[in-house]
Amino acid sequence: MNQKIEWSKIETGLLKYKEIMSLYKCSVNIEKDEVLQRRYKSFYKMNTARKDAQFYKGYFKMLKNARQGDIVDMPTILKQLKRLSNKHEISFASKLLATVDPKLPIWDSRVRERVNERGDIKLKATYKNTDECVEAYNSLVSWYSKFMKSNEAKMMIAEFDSHFPKEKISAIKKVDFIFWQTK
Question: How far is CA 163 from CA 73, 83, 156, 178, 179, in A?
Fold first, then answer.
């Protein structure tokens, strides 16, 4: 990688991420846990989306239901979020999925930018319908599956591990953190 990685920002982000994941696993009631919700929205920069209270109430209810064993998949989450906001919320849906299963990638502008730079696929910021969103997210998941086997990904993970040898997060999260903090 020719780009500069801001390891101090990754360290700060890791602390926040681990706290969110701990709160997610331990919260008695995700729907009412204001600390978890505030930290989650801040970490994932959801506050900038200017959603109303009903949207967040529905979102955290889905997160609670997912933790309790509801089947969670991209089509279902996208449809439920569409009912809440009348938009195709692929980024919010991916964050919910990646909270439930940390081995799944996040869809956000930084990750999209880093993936698009590599030229294998081109991901757009928005899509017309749920099927296109699902197809695009599946393309991202497939891209990660291939990328994680590459020398570049292995080097990124090794460098991450050299800075944070005791961190027990998924390899995809390590790459996500690097993508988020690369200049």
Answer: 33, 42, 11, 12, 15
